[in-house]
């Protein structure tokens, strides 16, 4: 039977416990920049070279990503924290990513549970953001750099989620940091990952695929807590 709470697209969910879009997953790619935004609207312009004394890029790592990683690795220990990652990422309107989204992404790509990411994990994270950027741009129909209720409903519907407009309005309200009636790119990532995580947790309980489950109170709390960011993220 048709999934009552939405069937996610193929390749969505490759990263354990969180959602991950596949290559160009949700519609045609749009130009790299759009509107009155900088040439690389969702990532800080990478420096031309790594800081003095920083080693050269390892094999398989693009020089511009290595230079960007080196520039934000403030203590030069070869790993970056959520706060350091935040220095490398901006939204299309030049506002910085919120720290919670950065912590979320660190937790997704931190394979050794150190609370930080190395350059190879950073490359995977950067590619992940690029995929989400294409997705975001395809639904930002007015090129505002923000997603409003209508655009969010269209996006979630295209992902296969059967969610109402009032739910999307609630989601916008909860993730709208500036009370503008819309959400920015980083909040869009955080919202979609949360919905995917909770949907997968619900799906595991919904053995009959009816969209209805019976949960004990503690089971419900476990579902929510399992979708939270781990305390080891720095």
From TrEMBL:
Residues 60-95, 127-162 form the EF-hand domain. Residues 42-52 have a biased composition (Low complexity). Keywords: Calcium, Cytoplasm, Metal-binding, Repeat. It is found in: Cytoplasm. One of its GO terms (cellular component) is cytoplasm. PROSITE patterns: EF_HAND_1 (PS00018), EF_HAND_2 (PS50222). InterPro entries: EF-hand-dom_pair, EF_Hand_1_Ca_BS, EF_hand_dom, Peflin/Sorcin_CaBP. The keyword Glycoprotein does not apply. CDD domains: EFh_PEF_ALG-2. Residues 1-54 are annotated as: Disordered. Gene3D superfamilies: EF-hand (1.10.238.10). Residues 1-14 have a biased composition (Polar residues). The keyword Protein biosynthesis does not apply. GO terms for molecular function: calcium ion binding; calcium-dependent protein binding. This is Putative ca2+-binding protein.
